[in-house]
Amino acid sequence: MTFDPQGAAPQRRGGVQTVKMVISGAVNAGKTEFIKSISEIEVVSTERRATDDTKLIKKETTVAMDFGRIAISDDLVLHLFGTPGQKRFDFMWEILSEGMLGLVILVDSTRPETFRETNRIIDFFISYRDTPYVVAANKQDKPNAWAPDELRLALRLPPQIKVLPCRANDRDSVKSVLLELLDVILQRSED
Amino acid sequence: MALVGNIRDFGLSDFLYLVDRGYKTGCLHLTRGGDTASLYFDKGKLVTATRNNIAAPVADLLIAKGKLTPQQSQHAIQAQRSNGGTHIGQVLIQLNYISRDDLQQLLQQHIEESVYTLFGWPEGDFRFEQNQRPETEALVMPTPLAVEHLIMEGVRRIDEWGRIKDRIPSTDMIVRFVEQPGEKAKGINLAAEEWRIFARINGKDTLSEIAQKTNMSDFDVCRIVYGFLTAGLVDVLKKPRPIPIDAAGRPIQEAPRVKKSLVSRIINRIRGM
């Protein structure tokens, strides 16, 4: 099977079909945790001790990407890719977005200082591709978390885009976000 | 739960947009060093504002402006107490000490000026307390003020590219009206140069093209469009990429979409996890 430039078709390697979802968001939005909560394999992360200002936010931050995997059946596998958060790794986003089935944008609901960056990420992924995506309002269990409705207004998202409450460290919450995204994808898929 | 942050990261105009579209009622408290401000909203509209916790009673302001005598003030305060919680402004109107229009004009002018200076704050902590209401003696306007009006006036005072570029990163972007801009535009009074830009918005021209056609600078066009954008009147979009063509010059067909059956299999698997 060949690569689909619209980013919706699966790839087939050695008889196993693979599909890809991308998890993106600003630094410390919870991408690594999100993938860890749902992946069947130990998440492949290239975490290093941060050398720039991200170390002010957390001791270790993702400098390349995370990779998780869910076997759907013997012949179908879902890959989950977490994008690097820092601006200097923007070039990776283009590569990761190729062939993706859909996109989850994670937002740290407690940190309005990341909302502009979140908008920049959304803009990057959707400006040139009609990518199905949802926004996951992470850390809803924390004090002073902005509610999904408030995040919709803060990020100026159109009404058709789902903004979902999320806790990236909770498997059921992550499942719920992925199912909502798959529902969006299903509406746009063909018989 | 309170919404907290810093206007360095989430600007005052962005917050006003959120208050407006979310029909929020409550108080936005701003703090910068020793300077403080409190803006009270009712269903998305501004009803009053105070600076540095100095909440001059309505009666004092009106006496200072020569619109009320001290005796009328005393009488109104007594009437307010016996009315049990009716706002002082309402009592003054009921007693015919001042007309509704005069009261609105005086309070609006006073409140607007205290709010506009806040747009010049480069940073400052904010905290929005939902459902917090002003005291009954506060300078509450009879007719609450639409925030689009405040946003436009506030944006007129922005003189730096940095904030504008957060929303308008390039002059190659296209400007288009959002749906039903007429409804939102009702609360806004545009200056002449803003009308020049407004009339040029057609969903096709880029900001730089609008600048050329109006003989205005890129900065001025972007600043004005930033105001429209923040007030929710327009969108700015990247120019669409040209449709790729093949060697024979024909447009390349879109690839087929993913199959429903495949998506359903993934859904069933994740549901069962």
Blueprint (SSEs and pairs):
The complex is a heterodimer of chains A (191) and B (273).
Chain A: E1 11-13, E2 16-25, H1 31-38, E3 44-49, E4 60-73, E5 76-82, H2 90-97, E6 100-108, H3 115-127, E7 133-138, H4 148-155, E8 163-165, H5 171-187
Parallel strand pairs in A: 2-5, 2-6, 6-7, 7-8
Antiparallel strand pairs in A: 1-2, 3-4, 4-5
Chain B: E1 3-6, H1 12-21, E2 26-32, E3 35-42, E4 45-51, H2 58-64, H3 70-83, H4 88-94, H5 100-116, E5 125-130, H6 147-156, H7 161-167, E6 174-177, H8 181-185, H9 192-198, H10 207-214, H11 218-230, E7 234-237, H12 260-271
Antiparallel strand pairs in B: 1-5, 2-3, 2-5, 3-4, 6-7
Helix pairs in contact in B: 1-6, 6-11, 10-11
Describe it for me?
- The complex is a heterodimer of chains A (191) and B (273).
- Chain A is built from 5 helices and 8 strands; from the N terminus they run E-E-H-E-E-E-H-E-H-E-H-E-H.
- Chain A has 191 residues and is an alpha/beta fold.
- Chain A has one domain (11-187): Rossmann fold (3-Layer(aba) Sandwich), CATH 3.40.50.300.
- In chain A, strands 1, 2, 3, 4, 5, 6, 7 and 8 form an 8-stranded mixed sheet that branches.
- Chain B has helices at residues 12-21, 58-64, 70-83, 88-94, 100-116, 147-156, 161-167, 181-185, 192-198, 207-214, 218-230, 260-271, and strands at residues 3-6, 26-32, 35-42, 45-51, 125-130, 174-177, 234-237.
- Chain B is of the alpha+beta class.
- In chain B, strand 3 (35-42) and strand 4 form a beta hairpin.
- The interface between A and B is large, with 46 and 35 residues.
Poorly predicted runs of chain B: none
Element order of chain B: H for helix, E for strand? EHEEEHHHHEHHEHHHHEH
User: In angstroms, what is the radius of gyration of chain A?
Assistant: 16 Å
Read across the widest sheet of chain B, the strand sequence of neighbours is 1-5-2-3-4
Q: Which structural class should the secondary elements of chain B be placed in?
A: alpha+beta
Strand content of chain A: 25-35%
Using the coordinates above, name the CATH class of chain A. Alpha Beta
